Amino acid sequence: MKTLKSFVKFFINESFRRKIIREIPIRKRQNIYLKSKDATGSGKIIIFLIDGADERTGKEQVTGGIMSIASIYEETNKLKEVHAGEAFICTHQYTNLLLKFTQFKSDAVILRLEQVLKHFSNANSFLIHVPEFLYPLFIHLISAANYRKLFSGKLLHVNILNQNIKLMPPADFIRNSRSLFHKLTMTTAHERYSTSEVQRLYGIPLHKLSVYGGPERYDFVPFEHKENLMIVSPDSHPLKEQVLSELTLKHPDLQIKIIEKMPYAEYLQLIRRAKWALTFGEGLDYYFLETVFSGGIGFAVYNKEFFTPEFEPLETVYPDYADLATCIAHDVARLSEPNIFKLANKAQFDICKQLYKHDEYLQNIKSFYEERYTFNIEE
After folding, report:
1. CA separation for the pair 288, 235 (Å, rounded)
2. Tell me: the pLDDT tens digits for 245-270?
3. All domains of the chain, ordered by start, with CATH?
4. Which residues of 233-244 are buried (b: 16+ CB within 10 A; e: fewer)?
5. Under a CB-based contact definition with an 8 Å cutoff, are residues 65 and 163 in contact?
6. Which residues, at least 6 apart from 47, have a Cβ–Cβ distance to it below 8 Å?
7. How many CA atoms lie within 13 A of 95 on its CB side?
8. What's the burial of 95, exposed, middle or buried (CB within 10 Å: 0-12/13-18/19+)?
9. Phi then psi for 235, rounded to 5 degrees?
10. Cβ 48 vs Cβ 72: under 8 Å
């Protein structure tokens, strides 16, 4: 037992030492970057709060959520004439430091939340975008005395980035936190929960942003130039192994690639080649959407929290995972016929195109900063 305790203590200390050594140069570069930002006479400071680096790799974990935040940040920087602010991406104090996104293209320099708040202590107001899953932690952070002091006398607007409604805190928690800020709002990523009912549930203004994906962002590759390749989301599911084994058995020539720890540029090249995408996640996620816009066919289970009703009749959007497991191998064979494949892709493409329009996405971001919210019914 003593040996085990000694090992645990050594491991924790060793991990801590590695963390400190890795983060010293990051802190120096963050400090140098922020010194170049004039803090005198500061007006509004806009902050996007994120989790930091993966402890093992020291890199960001590439998810649809983090890429969406990076996109909103970039578009926010283009709208200074609207919001008259300075935007930053920051990590919180309970995560590992991160200086740059390395898995996808972005010019953002990532700073520390407290670092930015102290540097811009003369700012009149702060707007902080907080992902839904980090909101309880954020409430804990700003309840601390040092953060209350930093926000003293400032206008504080907090916006919850509702990118996945399943990760939202309970409605009562949201309602009870409203008094902590001058303004609390919520922006949404999916049409399905961009509704007046959801706005009333949480009791705060709701604004639909959507996501940065639109067909014009992708290279559409026709069937004739596709490979018999299926990308698979990394999400876990009890039937996942069974489904993939069945596909391998029935289609030995089918290449199956689970997307894990892959730079985004490499992933984009992969979906250009792939005929198929199978997601075990939200259903209407980037694996599905980006494959469809790249000329492929998405397989998913209908999830009423993300899919809109238009998707329910689609032949590769199944009512449940049992049905998916039973039918997918047969459907891959049937849809491999060129004309049938093209019709199936077009059916998916047309629906996705109506829901995800890049121009609308950009206008939605602008409307948010103009405070023209989709649902602005306040109690």
Report:
1. 13
2. 999 999 999 999 999 888 888 999 99
3. 40-212+359-369 (3.40.50), 215-355 (3.40.50.2000)
4. beeebeebeebb
5. yes
6. 87, 88, 89, 90, 113, 116, 126, 127, 128, 129
7. 25
8. middle
9. -60, 145
10. yes
98-131 confidence digits (pLDDT tens): 999 988 889 999 999 999 999 998 899 999 999 9
DSSP letter for each residue of 43-67: -EEEEEEE--B-TTTSS----HHHH
**What is the full DSSP assignment across 230-299?**
EEE-----TTHHHHHHHHHHH-TT-EEEE--S--HHHHHHHHHHEEEEE-SSSSSSHHHHHHHHTT-EEE
CA-CA distances (angstroms) from residue 147 to 65, 114, 196?
A: 26, 8, 33
Both structure tokens of 127: 């707007």
Read off the tokens for 330. 């047969």
- DSSP codes of every residue in 129-172: EEEGGGHHHHHHHHTSHHHHHHHTTSEEEEEEEES-GGGPPPHH
Query: What mean pLDDT is predicted for residues 224-236?
Result: 96
Taking all residues of the chain, what is their mean pLDDT, rounded to a whole number? Answer: 91
Please state, in angstroms and rounded to a whole number, the distance separating the CA atoms of residues 126 and 124.
7
